[in-house]
Design goal:
8% of the residues lie in helices and 42% in strands. The protein is mainly β.
């Protein structure tokens, strides 16, 4: 099958999802109340043991997604690169063709410039030893990074990765990406916040649903074309999101990508980086031994 450029796939998805149910405000409110009561917390015990699929994702017993629901992408591995098993991946992005990563855990959090694509020297810049690093993204000549529960975001120079500023963050910080106009951040719920890319102040938000059902645990983020892609914490599933409507417009199940047997619940898929200039897509997970270049293709619709 010829390679499908992601931007072309976007339009196919739009057509395929026209039959998806629309959100009803009353059912959304009830579902959100249930979700708030059961809100998980990243980096703590998972809601269930093992690596499982998110129960909010419509799925039949044989793993196929329910007809009429958002369609799925299949994946193909293009290349595999080494990834540090000490690196608790919280952010992954590409700037000027170079791959960057931010990692978590107190005392082990770093901002990393990777050499694995062969176009840069590796730099590992420690974050302050007391913080728990989270998502990150480049905006111009700066890198913006979040912390989990430290109430602060950091600004770094892209060329040196040195910290040059900070800003307050309300609540928890999880994933971060940039759509060219706004920073988009997740906090573990189904609510995404928009931040001004210069002042880092909140300028809006959007709640994410599959039909009428909230999709919580949104984690690392990536802006691809005109859609948002998100990891879903504690799953190997990516969600594609129309940020203007808040609706999920597709899923990519990357189960099977992790090489071998996982050691613990922390080792989940997290980290999406896309280079629009080369149409290359990279993913990895927390403490995964490998980072993958993959290609996503829209699965045939039954
Ligand atoms: Ca990303």
């Amino acid at each position: 099958m010829p390679r499908l450029v992601l931007t072309a796939v976007l339009s196919l998805f739009t057509l395929a999802c026209q039959g998806a149910s629309q959100a009803d405000p009353s059912s959304i409110a009830a579902a959100e109340a249930r979700e708030a009561a059961a809100r998980p917390s990243e980096n703590s015990a998972p809601p269930s043991s093992g690596i499982s699929q998110d129960p909010t994702i419509p799925q039949t017993a044989d793993g196929a997604f329910t007809p009429g629901r958002p369609p799925t992408f299949t994946y193909e591995v293009i290349a595999a690169y080494p990834h540090g098993t000490e690196d608790f991946t919280q952010g992954l992005f590409i700037a000027e063709g170079v791959l960057y990563e931010s990692t978590g855990q107190v005392g082990r959090s770093h901002l990393i410039r990777h050499s694995i694509l062969g176009n840069a020297e590796e730099v590992r810049m420690p974050l302050p030893p007391h913080v728990f690093g989270e998502g990150s993204v480049a905006v111009g000549d700066k890198v913006i990074s979040l912390t989990w529960r430290d109430g602060v975001g950091h600004v770094h120079a892209l060329d040196t990765l040195e910290m040059i500023g900070e800003f307050p963050v309300a609540g928890e910080g999880w994933g971060l990406t940039y759509d060219g106009t706004r920073l988009i951040m997740s906090d573990g719920t189904n609510r995404l916040r928009f931040l001004d890319p210069n002042s880092y102040e909140e300028i809006g938000d959007q709640k994410i649903f599959v039909g009428t059902r909230p999709l919580p645990r949104l984690n690392e983020l990536e802006w691809i074309g005109d859609q948002l892609w998100a990891n879903i914490w504690q799953t190997d599933v990516l969600a594609r999101i129309d940020i203007e409507t808040g609706q999920v417009t597709g899923f990519a199940n990357l189960s099977g990508l992790y090489p071998g047997r996982r050691q613990g619940f922390d080792e989940v898929l997290n980290g999406i980086a896309y280079d629009p200039k080369t149409d290359r897509l990279f993913v990895t997970g927390k403490n995964w031994p490998q980072l993958f270049e993959i290609r996503l293709t829209l699965a045939p619709i039954e």
